[in-house]
Amino acid sequence: MSQARTLYDLLGDADSLAIVCHNNPDPDCLSSALALGRIAAAAGVDERRILYSGRISHQQNRAFVNLLDLDLQPFDPEVVHDRPDGALLAFVDHAIPGANNEVPPGTPVDVVIDHHPAEGIDARFVDHREAVGATATILAEYVAELDVEVDATLATALTFAIRRETLGFLRGATPAEYEAVASLHDRTDRDLLRRLSTPSVSGETVDAIADAIRNRVVRGGTLLTHVGRTNERDALPQAADYLATLEGVETAVVFGIVDDAIHLSGRSTDPRINLGDALGDAFDDVGSAGGHREMAGGQIPLGIFADYTTDDATLVDIVNRLVSNRVFAALGLDDGGDED
């Protein structure tokens, strides 16, 4: 029996389905949740909820939710406590309770569909494919195989997510992504797709990216920079995407202080390194970090640093030294090099 049919049969025995997105969900996660909800509806599950935690602050993510009119609810801890028989819990685009989500570690999970590197995944149904470029690719395969009705909203959501997750098929794309988008082509709303691709950018985001450009340090082909303290968490991956295109730069890592944590985002085209593994090695003892070979991120609680000083400039300087030392050491660049 295929994975799609196995999932469909599992959902057919359920009374309800709670689909939990990862923190600060992006279009890959959101479109996958939408598709899984449609599959559950086709299987006869009447009660379905998509839950998220964190913020939907990136301008494309906000546009995605608003233009597609997605029905999202804030994460409710009661959903995962004392679930009755027939109440299923699903993860899409993430895999482990407590890792990039608000679900308590050790919570039983029924469905996991993901493409990110992860170990120790435990669920009744698991489709974990690190080789594909997007979780939305897997869900697009499912809806095609199960003959689930695909309207313009779902087709456009999945298509946009696959395009964005692969940077327009330039990062991590496989034949599966092309096949998935081709299967959705006739039902995709091209005008809506254009509007999703070109949302307005806030002045705060532009300022944060400007700070990243100004604070950059380059060693060899690696660029490391920060945006200081910011409320624009989603400016970090945008800055990383842009700075990774600079001449001579193969790896770009951007970090900033958001609330009570240090957030990192990195991009790499260097075939000699796996950026997800490198950031994991650098920060797993003090926080959580990881991702793919070409795209990775992390989050480190400020902890004692938050109590050390109330001066943001001093705090940023301390964090800059800590993060720089660890990143450059993990990439074998701790002996110094050219700086810009």
From TrEMBL:
Domain DDH: 18-162
Pfam name, any one: DHH
This enzyme's EC code(s): 3.1.3.7
Domain of life: Archaea
Residues that span the membrane, as ranges: none
DHHA1 domain segment(s): 228-301
Keyword Ion transport: no
A GO molecular function held by the record: 3'(2'),5'-bisphosphate nucleotidase activity
UniProt keywords, alphabetically: Hydrolase
InterPro entries per record: DDH_dom, DHH_sf, DHHA1_dom, Oligoribo/pAp-PDE_c-di-AMP_PDE
PANTHER family xrefs: BIFUNCTIONAL OLIGORIBONUCLEASE AND PAP PHOSPHATASE NRNA (PTHR47618:SF1)
Protein name (database record): Bifunctional oligoribonuclease/PAP phosphatase NrnA
Organism this protein belongs to: Haloplanus litoreus
